[in-house]
Specification:
The chain has 205 residues and is mainly α. The chain contains nine helices and no strands. The longest helix is centred in the last third of the chain and has 32 residues.
């Protein structure tokens, strides 16, 4: 993989990672309601899910992944209903958004990680995207270990980096709004967005 190819792939994936999506909503919501550490755990789950799809696409296993359709359908519905459940909890909660950002238990961190992971692998079309993108930039017939390592590095840097920026920016906003009544409105907005993201994940084809 040439430097130009790597830069092109980087630019494409940064742009796509920055676009508003269910994963962005998830990262922002987990960061706002549970703190930066949970937002980072969510980002890690998303990155791991993307890495899985990238590896399958690079190894030419996209067809195999598509034949496992029932598995991905189940995962998609699990992730979707979980997001709706989280959104409902936010809407029905009486207390304001949790501002004790220093507290992050292992259970919530694991839940955040799994939420990000499930949301990502619930979108099986992602592997089709990767399987279509890579051949346009990389000669798949001459793909070697260094090429694969480079593509994985770009994936981690772009997807993880952009989503991490969202998580950090969310924390900064929360810090500035600390003790203000507007937090209750943000809680409602976050809950609505989570329900919308979960519904979209379930109903999209």
């Amino acid at each position: 993989m040439t430097l130009w190819t790597g830069l092109s792939l980087f630019a494409i994936m940064v742009t796509l990672a920055a676009l508003p999506s269910s994963s962005v909503v998830l990262v922002v919501t987990r960061s706002a309601t549970l703190g930066l550490m949970n937002g980072m755990a969510t980002v890690l789950g998303i990155v791991v899910g993307d890495i899985l799809f990238v590896i399958l696409a690079l190894l030419g296993m996209s067809i195999l992944a598509q034949t496992m359709g029932i598995f991905f359908v189940v995962v998609k519905y699990v992730a979707g209903f979980y997001l709706i459940w989280v959104g409902m909890r936010l809407l029905r909660a009486k207390s304001l958004i949790n501002l004790d950002l220093g507290q992050a238990s292992k259970s919530t961190l694991f839940a955040s990680f799994m939420t990000g992971f499930l949301l990502t692998i619930g979108d099986v079309k992602a592997i089709v995207f990767y399987a279509s993108l890579f051949p346009t930039l990389v000669d798949m017939t001459t793909l070697n270990g260094w090429d694969i390592a480079g593509i994985l590095l770009v994936t981690v840097t772009t997807v993880g980096g952009v989503k991490l920026v969202y998580a950090i920016a969310t924390q900064q906003i929360i810090e500035r709004l600390r003790q203000r009544r507007v937090l209750k409105g943000m809680q409602r907005v976050a809950g609505t967005l989570m329900i919308g993201a979960g519904t979209y994940l379930i109903v999209k084809t």
